Sequence to fold (341 residues):
Amino acid sequence: MLRQSEKTVLFIPALGKGRKMAKVLVIGGAGYIGSHVVKALLEKGHQAAVYDNLSTGQKVNLFEQAEFIEGDILDSGLLFDTLRNGFDAVVHLAAKKAVGESMEKPNKYSINNIQGSLNILMAMAECGVRHIVFSSSAAVYGMPEYLPVDEAHPLNPINYYGFTKLEIEKFMDWYDRLKDMRYVALRYFNAVGYDSEGKIRGKEKNPQNLLPIIMETAAGVRDGMSVFGSDYDTRDGTCIRDYIHVSDLASAHVLAIEKLIEGMPSAVLNLGTGEGTSVKEMIDAAEKVTGKKLNVTYAGRRAGDPATLIASSEKARNLLGWKPQITDIEEIIRTTWNLEH
Ligand code: UDP
Fold:
């Protein structure tokens, strides 16, 4: 049993009249992105429940107002027992996501990502839950053939993780055709930052991504860090990525659910800012925000890294009326640094 004090209590403003409330199961809702989605749902007056096996998700990310079901997506029985309780929609973020590991242990990714997602779709179909928002990834595109990358870009994942995300998108498309289930697949670019109100306290364990590594270096958790490649054809030789704040990702999930319930057809949408930041620019901005000099080593390129990856998110802007709010890289870093020290 969770002690009440372990969960965060949110202040939820009164709802405007006539707004339709959705009952949403957030699978993977104790994780980094999922917990921000739960907060965004609750703050818009929706009802949220969290389903999570706590393999990487954390109890400190739970909210008092969202029921918690500790469960695994490989447990079809529990999924069914949960989903038959009148949910309008599912947000599915439960997945293994380490790109390198996916190449070494593909079975783990087949089982957790593909089989787990099929279990969710089957339980939804069985229980009559007709809307799903799925956390997909820019990894479905592989090496960019043109920039910015839009949703019409060829789909050639170069790692098994990206392949699993693409296959799940295809399964959802078939469930749309065969089971009348509408989906929105959100292809995230580089997710960064934390809730600016500090309500989400669970830092990711053993982070593999650039910004958390920079933060740990600034905080002295690591002695130093490496920049993977400084000879790319970019403005300063280091890789450029499209960093999108996690609270902006979260708001897109809520909008996607609302639109699906209003009757929007299924859609695949990129989520990014359309702006690129280089590794070096990120490090410089972090030094400025934290006031710390980072111990940086310039190392060789990392296999599979494109020089530049930037999203076109016009489709999300048009279909959802979505617009990222936190786009200043220093502000993004500040929301992360607040948690670090
Ligand atoms: N990167 C780096 N040092 C690190 C981690 C990442 O130079 O310790 C670079 C990486 O090569 C890429 C960028 O930072 O160009 C973003 O990497 P990340 O792993 O965060 O996300 P990805 O773009 O691979 O999904």
